[in-house]
Automatic annotation (TrEMBL):
Family per similarity comment: Belongs to the universal stress protein A family.
Protein name: Universal stress protein family protein
Pfam family, any one: Usp
Source domain of life: Bacteria
SUPFAM superfamilies, alphabetized: Adenine nucleotide alpha hydrolases-like
Domain UspA: 3-113, 154-280
Amino acid sequence: MSYKTVLVHIDDSRRSHTRVDFAVDLALKHNAHLIGLYVVCQDALRPFLNVEESLNLAVQEAQARARLERAHDHFLSATRLSGCTSEWRAPIGPPADTAILHARHADVIVLGQPDPADPAAYIGKHFPEDLVMSSGRPAILLPYAGRIERFGETVLIAWDGSRAAARAVADALPVLRLAHSVQIVTIEQPRATSDESARTPERAGHALAAYLGHHRVRAGVLSIPHVWGVSTGAALLNVLADTSAGLLVLGAYGHARFQERVLGGVTRTLLKSMTAAVLMSH
């Protein structure tokens, strides 16, 4: 697999420009075409961007046009300066459904972690989760805090042998081939009853390392003992901090129930508390 089209979600949030700049670098690394998809909240009851936002419809429309033009100008400036081939899209329609439709025609999506302190980062309830779970494409989510440094140089793979994890690894191969260091992280089973069963996750990690070797990716295996009271999500966050890794590859879990997005515990923890970029696939 290779990335020939990269789609970046653009909005009016404070981190949108950073997301665009990251996507430009990613597209250049992979000689890919970049699509800038401008999708913002269209809910009349959305959080106001500032306390003095006018209720006058004409003024609101003018403000919206001005924000779109600013976002468009930055996208054009960033892509022209880099020489990256690109296109701009600002479709009309329900944000999640519209973004999912466009994302299905890209190889990888670049999204931002929701910032609870930035009203402009709110697109819709479960917006990033919906794109990850419904687009059928891998998504690179960038944290709203801190700088994006050393992306893809040091990579951790959260491996449990599941379908979602296998999909995420395959989707991440273009990034893994360029990495300086790849570590497969396995977590020991809490109810192991023998040495044989205790080694099962680590053994699965070595099997994945052998698979990656056929794709020109050298990977080590890091087995983490299970600690009672520490969730898998928290354990992965601890490993991220200890290794200063720039990317975590993770299989995303979840399902829809009564119009609500129900995510697995690990996925939910990482979306809420991520400290580095995360590549997720479902």
